[in-house]
Design goal:
The structure holds 2 protein chains of 2 kinds. Helices cover 34% and strands 22% of the residues of chain A. Chain A is of the alpha/beta class. Chain B has helices at 3-15, 17-35, 43-60, 65-88, 93-111, 117-120, 131-135, 152-176, 179-189, 191-196, 201-227, 237-250, 257-281, 295-313, 322-326; strands at 126-127, 144-145, 150-151, 229-230. The chains are: A alpha/beta, B mainly alpha.
Chain lengths: 282, 330
């Protein structure tokens, strides 16, 4: 955590539902149930612009469901979400991406039978060549394709994938797929990046480089919200941590404060547990 | 053994009318299944839309031939694609499969209903609606053309068919190397990934269904022109599966795959037909094993055997890529 990102949270209370100085994403009274199970029941959450926010919680806490609700891949039973002041109520998932909020998936969705460069180019928005009527008229979109290709190649170089440019994405290793998915998300030119367990299935050698890439997103001014189990990652790169348990937000605060929070200790280890919390063993 | 007749018939299969009709239908299926991952088990209904679009316009409504072409190639298949696609394409892939197979049977059964005789000609179908087409033929009715393979009017149908087929192949080739084609392939691979990158998967799938339907309708329409008739039994489910066989034989998601597949399918069917018949007639195959009337069935058994061998030893199809196929297992 750097000094200038700490100041983003000046005066913000360390409590669930705390108001942020400059929220980019605001959630109110969002509930989602599956049959009798209430998977998500969040009264209020604000996500600070320009910071890295981690969403953690024990297994079954509803993190991924909440994540799907935030990106409109799932619809809540009740409640509202707004992104940059725009209500996400009836907006389909693909329009959310066009508004500047792009997500990745827990199980990487690299498009295996497409080349790495095609995966990247897919991410570019407002492509003229994606119109049926212009698709067979190459001259109508080739210049845009050219500039998108240059941007894609620059991103591939940054994510150490340039040598895989023309390989099928299906031939990449698990870690490389995570990198590709992140690079592809950047082709959308998002203002907010949502990462669902970016460290899952990544070998330790690649983890450090992935961490640097996530920090790089923030340094470029993007807002990052990620779901993660890996406590090392949470401690190392997040500016703010939101803890969920049983569908509710039970704690918020800077990463260092979370280990001492009694509600968090109870959620992870059971109530009335007196031993000191070591989240690293999760 | 009359090898001349065997070779002549084989080439008629490789290049003739059946090849053209089913190549077009299979190109449509390739657009649906090969590129977009849509399961269409009712391509026959798109072919029927083309055939009945033309024949009903001309024979029932008395419109001229060109209006018939417009209705058969554009209007009927687009309406059909919207009717089938709008309710199902938001759902899992199986729902489109169910709806297409149901729609193709419904259309066939309704078209042959006696109460609609005035409109569809019921089970006799409609005839003599393509006279304007044959009036334009540059070939003399009795003449033999193209190494003697095709006679007069047949040559005219085949020539127009080749031109249409070439244009459609060119169009598909251009479309699939565009960003539009890239979105379709992405949807086939993972629809959620495409949506997460801002692509309206539903709308792209609907477009693919419409375009593939138009190609199928072209095949059905040419078939109606070629036979000067549109009859319900020309659009039984077998027709759909012939198109599927052509696609699988050639290899899905390759521009030339369905064309090669259709040529090979009808080449083999014609070859085995004449070849087996001659073996029986010349006593090489004893009547106790097979007689001349069974040749028609036996050649389909051979095609079936060939497909099983293909699935076992070359599942990607004749022109498919093994590397791409292997990626599924990772």
């Amino acid at each position: 955590m750097t000094a200038d990102t700490t100041s983003l949270f000046n005066g913000v209370a360390w409590e669930p539902g705390a108001a942020k100085n400059d929220p980019i994403l605001v959630v109110d009274d969002v509930r989602r149930s599956f049959g009798g199970l209430i998977a998500v029941d969040v009264d209020h959450l604000e996500v600070q612009r320009g910071a890295i926010t981690a969403l953690i919680g024990p297994n079954g806490a509803g993190k991924t469901t909440f994540f799907n609700l935030l990106t409109n891949f799932d619809d809540p039973d009740t409640g509202t979400r707004s992104f940059e002041g725009q209500d996400l109520g009836n907006i389909p998932a693909h329009r959310v991406a066009n508004l500047g909020m792009v997500r990745t998936f827990q199980l990487t969705k690299s498009l295996s039978k497409m080349t790495v460069i095609d995966n990247m180019l897919l991410g570019a928005t407002h492509q003229r060549g994606e119109s049926l009527w212009r698709s067979f008229l190459r001259f109508a979109w080739s210049d845009q394709e050219q500039s998108n290709t240059e941007r894609a190649e620059a991103l591939l170089a940054r994510f150490n994938l340039a040598h895989m440019r023309d390989e099928f994405a299906g031939t990449l290793s698990g870690g490389q797929r995570k990198l590709l998915e992140m690079a592809r998300a950047l082709m959308v030119e998002p203002t907010m990046v949502m990462l669902d367990e970016p460290m899952a299935g990544v070998n330790p050698a690649l983890k450090q480089s992935l961490l640097e890439h996530v920090k790089g997103l923030r340094d470029e001014g993007m807002t990052v919200l990620f779901v993660e189990h890996d406590m090392d990652m949470v401690q190392e790169i997040s500016d703010w941590v939101v803890v969920m348990a049983e569908g509710r937000i039970i704690a918020e605060g800077p990463p260092a404060s979370i280990g001492e929070n009694q509600a968090v200790v109870d959620a992870y280890l059971g109530a009335h547990h007196d031993a000191p919390l070591d989240l690293g063993d999760d | 053994m009359d090898w001349g007749a065997i070779i002549e018939n084989t080439f008629r299969g490789l290049l003739g009318e059946q090849f053209i009709y089913f190549a077009l239908a299979a190109i449509g299926l390739n657009m649906h299944f090969g590129y977009t991952g849509l399961l269409n088990f009712g391509q026959a209904v798109f072919m029927a839309a083309g055939a009945y679009g033309l024949s009903m316009s001309v024979a029932t409504l008395g419109l001229n031939f060109w209006w018939g072409l417009l209705l058969g190639i554009v209007v009927f298949p687009l309406i059909l694609a919207l009717l089938m696609g709008i309710p199902t394409l938001r759902l899992r892939a199986d729902y489109l499969a169910i709806v297409t197979i149901a729609a193709s049977e419904m259309f066939r059964i309704i078209a042959r209903s006696p109460s609609l005789d005035r409109w569809t000609g019921s089970s006799d179908g409609l005839t003599a609606f393509a006279n304007d087409f044959y009036d334009m033929s540059p070939f003399s009715t009795g003449g033999r053309y193209f190494f003697g393979l095709f006679i007069g009017n047949q040559m005219w149908v085949v020539l127009v068919g080749w031109i249409v087929l070439a244009l459609v192949v060119l169009l598909v080739w251009l479309m699939m190397r565009s960003p539009w084609g890239r979105v379709l392939r992405a949807i086939r691979e993972d629809e959620d990934a495409a949506r997460s990158l801002g692509k309206n998967a539903y709308w792209f799938k609907l477009q693919a269904l419409m375009i593939g339907g138009v190609f199928g309708a072209l095949g059905g329409l040419l078939r109606a022109i070629g036979t000067q008739s549109a009859q319900p039994q020309n659009f039984i489910t077998d027709v759909t599966f012939f198109a599927w066989v052509a696609l699988i034989l050639g290899g899905a998601a390759k521009v030339g795959g369905p064309v090669a597949g259709a040529a090979i399918l009808y080449g083999i069917l014609n070859f085995t037909d004449v070849f087996l018949r001659q073996l029986v007639d010349n006593g090489y195959i004893s009547e106790s094993i097979m007689d001349g009337t069974q040749v028609g069935q036996v050649r389909f058994m051979l095609i079936g055997l060939g497909l099983i061998l293909l699935a076992a030893f070359r599942p990607q199809g004749i022109f498919g890529s093994k590397e791409e196929m292997a990626l599924d297992d990772r």
